[in-house]
Specification:
By secondary structure, the chain is of the alpha/beta class. The protein folds into four domains: 198 residues, no CATH class; 101 residues, PAS domain (Beta-Lactamase), CATH 3.30.450.20; 190 residues, Rossmann fold, CATH 3.40.50.2300; 153 residues, Histidine kinase-like ATPase, C-terminal domain (Heat Shock Protein 90, 2-Layer Sandwich). The chain contains 21 helices and 19 strands. The strands form five sheets. The protein has a five-stranded antiparallel sheet, with helices on both faces. Strand 4 and strand 5 form a beta hairpin. Helix 5 packs antiparallel against helix 6.
């Protein structure tokens, strides 16, 4: 039936209404042909086919041929011509009946009824009435002929009018019924044809969407849960060919990685609840895992339930989401470090002002006390505690990469050798210190003090990990890395100076190693700051290197530090002579912190300098305008209440040439800004500083012939 319907639909007619009408014409023609064949068969069985060949043989055969011709015209798109041929099939046999009597009247009546039905179904009321008129005329003519009025003897004894009435009355009743019900029947048949056409189009659309969908689709017969249909995307998604799946059951070809989830989803579907966008894992034919969003529901096809499911492959999206999550965590980690750095940078300025005041006061008090004074020990403790606080600040800034560093090309083994004596004192008698340094280690570009800080931090951690004693081993060697990093933190290919610090202490668990370089993470409780390893990480990263750790509980710990090889090596600067820190020049001190300003003025005055002090740029400009003499040096805090850096210095020294400027600050960022915007060779001094540090820097600046002078603006 499906093939017959498709054959009936395939006519070269564009208009959908005409196409439905053409299908109806074909159906009626085939019905007429079937009736003609039945009539011929009945006539042959009764033996009347040879007796009346025109009425019972030739005429029906001619009608059948005419109907076939009408179908052929429809198949070639000649729809209108086919309708005219249909009218001829109605009229010509009726005219032929004019020459016949009422012999075999039932067959002729059936033929006339078929003519009327065809006229009513094909052309409507007008055609029905025309066909009825022709049929009644034919009946009347036949009745007159049988009565002998149209020539020849009467063939029937009954009166012509009675014969005509017996045939015409049922014919008229049939015409009335057809006139009343043919329209709805015709519309119902046309609607049925339209629905068959829409169903076929819908099936074609579904089949096309199923076959070409980029998502995996499958159709499963619910009673036995066997695969009925899968598309190409399904085979690409699972790795199974269609022949390896079709006919198998869901259990036989198990694809879900989580059987419990599959059972839950299937139970919901059996209960009639559709599922939408359920994320599930699947195992492909080769064993690899993929992830998809599954949507499924139970549909009815031909009164049988089927499971229709769609799986959208999101494996790549999940991978990208995982990468984005890693990047997000890295960003959050970087933001956390940045927040700590901003906090450290913000606090450093004020904190270093306090430490500068404490250190300067302790040093001056120490100079004022006689050697045997009982208070010298307390002053020394104050100085030591202040320096510890300054060291803690430097560690925090080193971790945050905001400290003021002065990298230079050095040899690491030389800096490490200079620490051996101190290391042995720090480690104590129970811990042996072993060193092995490369005789010709490659030079590296790094701040020397920071290298020493890294070694000391790692050594102190090793000491704490060996409470009962042990061995600390420090080695340096040249290393060439040829392969790509195998794990996070490994160095990329290149040439490095490898510095390793190892101990045979308690070691670390994998969980501790995972957080070892995080700020404020410590296993020492209240005894640790959690900044030691974080500081080492910041210093090494700032130098362009990498630091890795290998450890296990009870097996000790080894840190490996890779410093990139530098091109040349330069020796540390040396002073040609001992400095005389005294002087008689005039120095303008501009410092917004009163205690720091007071101590700076006092320490410089004790060395013989003439000092003018101010708490802001405007105050300094006002005092300088009233000062008749010259000024050789400006000692200025970078961040003043009414100005910063070179701009403030230019306003203060407007109109004065050759004045040397020394910037001081407790903020590494402010000092960096002063370096960038203060001319070709800016001079800076980081807080906290001692009076001796200040005196040395001022004296060097004044004695240096090529020192930078502020330009008036």
């Amino acid at each position: 039936m499906r093939r017959l319907g498709a054959w009936l639909e395939r006519v070269p007619i564009d208009d959908p209404t005409d196409r439905r009408q053409a299908v109806l014409v074909q159906l009626l023609c085939f019905a007429g042909i079937a009736w003609v064949l039945v009539a011929i068969a009945l006539a042959a069985v009764r033996g009347s086919l040879l007796t009346h060949p025109l009425a019972n043989g030739v005429l029906p055969a001619s009608v059948a041929l005419a109907l076939l011709g009408e179908v052929a015209l429809v198949r070639h798109g000649r729809y209108r011509l086919a309708l005219y041929l249909g009218l001829a099939c109605v009229i010509i046999p009726a005219v032929v009946l004019v020459g016949q009597g009422f012999a075999n009247a039932p067959h002729r009546m059936l033929y006339l009824v078929l003519v009327l039905v065809g006229a009513a179904m094909l052309r409507g009321h007008t055609a029905l009435r025309l066909a009825a008129f022709v049929a009644l005329a034919a009946l009347a003519t036949g009745a007159a002929r049988d009565a002998g009025y149209l020539g020849g003897p009467a063939s029937l004894p009954a009166p012509p009018l009675g014969q005509f009435g017996n045939a015409a009355v049922p014919l008229i009743v049939i015409v009335v019924l057809l006139d009343r019900f043919a329209g709805p029947l015709r519309e119902a048949l046309a609607e049925a044809v339209r629905r068959a056409h829409e169903l076929k189009a819908s099936e074609e659309r579904f089949r096309l969407a199923f076959a070409t969908s980029p998502d995996a689709m499958l159709l499963v017969r619910m009673p036995d849960q066997s695969y009925v249909e899968v598309n190409d995307a399904f085979t690409r998604f699972t790795g199974y060919a269609a022949g390896e799946v079709l006919g198998r059951t869901l259990t036989e070809r198990a694809l879900w990685a989580d059987p419990a989830l599959f059972a839950s989803v299937l139970e919901r579907l059996v209960q009639g609840d559709p599922v939408s966008n359920v994320e599930a894992g699947f195992l492909r034919k080769d064993g690899s895992a993929v992830t998809a969003l599954v949507s499924a529901r139970v549909v009815t096809i031909g009164s049988a339930p089927y499971l229709l499911a769609i799986a959208k492959d999101i494996t790549e999206r999940k991978r990208l989401e995982g990468e984005r999550e890693v990047l997000r965590e890295q960003l959050l980690h970087a933001q956390k470090l940045e927040a700590i750095g901003r906090l450290a940078g913000g606090v450093a300025h004020d904190f270093n002002n306090v430490l500068t005041s404490v250190l300067a006061s302790a040093e001056m008090l120490m100079q004022a006390l006689p050697p045997d004074h009982p208070g010298r020990g307390d002053v020394q403790q104050i100085d030591a505690d202040a320096r510890r606080a300054a060291e803690l600040t430097r560690q925090l800034l080193s971790f945050a990469r905001r400290n003021d560093v002065a990298p230079q090309v050095i040899r690491v083994e030389e800096r490490a050798r200079s620490l051996e004596k101190m290391l042995r004192r720090v480690m104590g008698a129970k811990i042996a210190v072993e060193t092995s340094f490369a005789s010709q280690g490659w030079p590296v570009f790094v701040d020397p003090g920071q290298v020493e800080q890294v070694i000391m931090n790692l050594a102190v951690n090793a000491r704490d990990a060996m409470p009962s004693g042990g061995r600390l081993t420090i080695r340096s060697e040249n290393a060439t890395v040829l392969t790509a990093p195998a794990r996070a933190g490994d160095p990329p290919p290149g040439e490095y100076l490898l510095l390793s610090v190892a101990d045979d202490g308690t070691g670390m668990t994998p969980e501790v190693m995972e957080h070892a370089f995080e700020p404020f993470f410590t296993t020492k409780g209240s005894q640790g700051t959690g900044l030691g390893l974080a500081t080492c990480y910041g210093i090494v990263s700032q130098a362009g290197g990498t630091i890795t750790v290998d450890s296990a509980p009870g097996a000790g710990t080894r840190f490996r530090i890779y410093f990139p090889r530098a091109a040349v090596v330069c020796g540390p600067p040396s002073e040609a002579r001992a400095l005389d820190l005294h002087g008689s020049e005039t120095i303008l001190v501009v410092e917004d912190d009163p205690s720091v300003r007071r101590l700076a003025v006092r320490s410089l005055q004790q060395l013989g300098y003439a000092v003018i002090d101010a708490g802001s740029a405007s105050e300094a400009r006002a005092k300088l305008s009233r000062h008749a003499g010259g000024v050789e040096c400006l000692l200025m805090d970078v961040q003043l209440p009414d100005g910063e850096g070179a701009d403030a210095a230019g306003r203060i020294l407007a109109g004065r040439e050759g004045v040397r400027v020394l910037y001081v600050s407790g903020s590494p960022e402010a000092l960096a800004a002063a370096r960038e915007g203060g001319g070709p060779s800016p001079e800076v001094l980081a807080k906290p500083y001692s009076p001796i540090d200040l005196a040395r820097r001022v004296r060097l600046l004044l004695d240096r012939g090529g020192a930078r002078a502020a330009t008036a603006t």
